[in-house]
Amino acid sequence: MNGGTSFGRIFSVLGLVMLALLVLPVLGLALRAPWTSLAHDIVEPSVLRALGLSLAVSSGAAAFACLFGFPLAWILARGRFRGRHLLRAFVLLPMVFPPVVGGVALFTVFGRRGILGPVLEGLGIDLAFTPAGAVLAAAFIASPFFILSAEAGLASADRRLEGAASTLGASEGMIFRKVTLPALWPSLSAGLALTWARALGEFGATIMFAGNLPGRTQTVPLAVYEMFQEGDDGGAILLSLVLLIVSLAVLLGFRRRAFGR
Amino acid sequence: MSLQVDVRLSVGSFRLEAAFEVPAVAAAVLGPNGAGKSTLVALLAGLALPSEGTVRLKGELLDDPSSGLHVPARKRSVGVMFQDHLLFPALSARDNAAFGLRADGTSAREARAKAEELLRRFGLGHCLDRKPRDLSGGESARVALARAIIRKPDLLLLDEPLAALDVESRASARRLIAEVLSDFGGVALLVTHEPVEALSLCDRMLILEEGRVTHEGPPDAIRRRPRSRYAASLAGLNLVKGRVARLGDRCLVEGAWGRLIVADPVSPDGSPVADGAPVLATIHPRGIALSLDRPDGSPRNVLPGVVLSVDLYGDRARLDLGTSPPLTVEIAGETLTSLGLREGMNVWATVKATEIEVYGV
C-alpha cells in the first residue's frame, strides 16, 4: 500500500538493494556448490572432523556461557551496586571489537607466556593451540549474546510473582525453579541460539589463539579459509554450505521454541 | 484470634502510620486511591518492612524492628489474593492452587488432589489443566482465591479481588468470596474502594486515608458518625468541619466555608457543647430543598449556588451544588423537571436546622 507513494517507492528500491546483498551470496553458494559430488565429498574424513569439532566447540562455548554467563546476567539485572553500568560495558566489549584483536588479547593473558601462563602451567592446563583454547576463544566472543538476552529477560520479568510465591511459603530455590526460570526460558533459549550460532562461525579469535591445526583446532570456518587459500573453491563452498544449513537449522529450531505460538 | 497493627513505614514521600486491631472477622479496608491500601497489604504479607512499630497475629509478633524481628513472607501464615491475581504463568490452574502445599512439603500427589478438590468446589472442574493465559477473568480470580486459602492461613488478604473482573463474573466471584469468608476462621482483610463490596462482604470497616486509619468499626457506626469527607461520601452524606458558636438563641457551626444554623448539639454525657468546640456536621442529601427564588420564612439556612452537575438514578436525581459549603442534593426526578434544573443554573438550597446532625470530633 505504501508502494503507491513516492516515499514508499524509493524505500522499496533501497530495501531491495539491501536484500540483494543479503540474499545473493547465499544463492551464489547454492549455485556454485559441487552438487554432483556432494554426497561423496561430505563424508570425507577431513570434512567430518572439522564439522564435529565445530559442533563440539560451539556447544562447549554455549555451555560455558550458560554456566558462568547466567549468574553474571543475574548480577547485572538485579544487583544494586556502583559501577554496574561500567561492568555492562565490559561485558559488551567482545561484541564490538574485532575478533582478531580478541585473539591477541586472550594470548596476552592465557598464552604460555601470558600473564596467567605460569599459573596455568602449574595447574597443568594448556589453552593456547588446544581444543579447550578454541572453546575459550569462542566463549569469549559469543557469550555476550547470551548474557545480554538473559539480562533483558530478568529485567522484564514480573518480580511480583516471586513475592506472590514467597507468601505461599516457597523457598528461594523453589521460586527460582518454578516461577523465575520458566518465565526466562524464551530469553534464555534465544540467547543460547545466538551464542551457539555466533560461536559456530567464530574465526578471528580462534585462529589467533587456538591456531589452525587440522583435527585439533581447525573448525569449519578455519577449514573453509584454508581450502579457499589453497584454491579448493569447491571444498570451501561445500563446507560453507554445510555451516550455513546447520546454523540456520539451529536458529530456526530455537526460535520456534523461544517465540513459538 | 486477632490482628494488631501499629506501624510506621515510609515509601518515597508516602508515609503509612496505621494503628488498628481487627478481631477474627472479615473486615473491609476502604480508602481512596493512594491511601496506602496496597502498602498495608505488602506490609502484612511480609513483603515490606515497617520502619517502626509492631504487627501481631494471634498474639504472635511478626514485625518488631526495634528488636530486629521480621518474620519473612514465607514463614507467615498469611494468604494473599493479589489485585491482578499474579498466577504463575508456567503452571496449570491445579498446580497454581497446589503451590502453597507443595512449598510446605506436601507430596505432589496429595497437594494436587487437594487443589483439585478445592477447584472443583469452586466450579473450576473444567479447567484444572489450563494455564493462566487460557483462563477467563472470573476463573483466574477463583484460582487465585483457592491458591490463597489452600494452606488455611490465619490471615487472609484480598487486595481488590474483584477490580479486574467484568460485571457478570464480578457477581458470582463476590458470592464465592462471601461463602469463603463465612467459613473462614481467621482474620480476613478485604481491600476495596467499592462501598457496596465492603458492605456486602464484611462485618467491619477500616477506612484508610493518606496513610492513616480514620475509622475502624462496624459499618453502621461509620454511616452514622463519619469522621472525614471520604467516610461521609461513602455513606452518601455531606460533611463539614467547624466550630460551635452561639448568637442570641441560635446555635451555629462556623468554618472557613461559612456558617450553618443548627439545632443545639448535646454531648454524649448530656451537657451542652461548649462554644468554640470543634465539631463535625452531616447533612443528608435528601434533607435539602431547592428553589429558583430566594425563599423566606422560619430560621433555616439558605445558600445560593450554581448547579455543577446533575445525575439521574432511577426516579431520583443527585445534584452537586457550588454553594459554600459545597453540597450534594438528592431530589425527586419530578422536582427536577418541574423546576427545569440544568447544569450552570443558579439555585437556592434550603437546609432546616433539624436536618443537620452535629457531633464532636
Structure in words:
The complex is a heterodimer of chains A (261) and B (361). Chain A has two domains: 1-32, no CATH class; 45-259, MetI-like fold (Orthogonal Bundle). By secondary structure, chain A is mostly helical. Chain A starts with 5 loop residues before the first helix and ends with a helix. Chain A has helices at 6-32, 38-42, 45-78, 84-96, 99-110, 117-122, 131-156, 160-167, 172-200, 204-209, 220-229, 233-259. Chain A has twelve helices and no strands. Chain A is globular. Chain B has 361 residues and is of the alpha+beta class. A six-stranded mixed β-sheet of chain B has the order 7-8-9-3-10-11, with helices on both faces. In chain B, strands 2-1-4-5-6 form a five-stranded antiparallel β-sheet, with helices on one face. A five-stranded antiparallel β-sheet of chain B has the order 14-13-12-15-21. The radius of gyration of chain B is 25 Å and the shape is elongated. Chain B starts with a strand and ends with a strand. The relative contact order of chain B is 0.11.
Q: What are the salient characteristics of this protein?
A:
heterodimer; A: 261 residues; mainly alpha; MetI-like fold; globular; B: 361 residues; alpha+beta; 6-stranded mixed sheet; 5-stranded antiparallel sheet; 9 helices; elongated
Q: Please give the order of strands in the largest beta sheet of chain B.
A: 7-8-9-3-10-11
CATH topology of the largest domain in chain A: MetI-like fold
User: How far is the first residue's CA from the last residue's CA of chain B?
Assistant: 31 Å
- The CATH H-level superfamily of the largest domain in chain A is MetI-like
CATH architecture label of the largest domain in chain A? Orthogonal Bundle
Number of domains of chain A: 2
- Secondary-structure element series of chain A: HHHHHHHHHHHH
From the spread of the alpha carbons, the general shape of chain A counts as globular
The whole-number mean of residue pLDDT values of chain A reads 89
Strand content of chain B: 35-45%
Find the count of extended strands of chain B (DSSP E, 2+ residues): 21
SS element count, helices of chain B: 9
Proportion of beta-strand residues of chain A: under 5%
DSSP helical segment count of chain A: 12
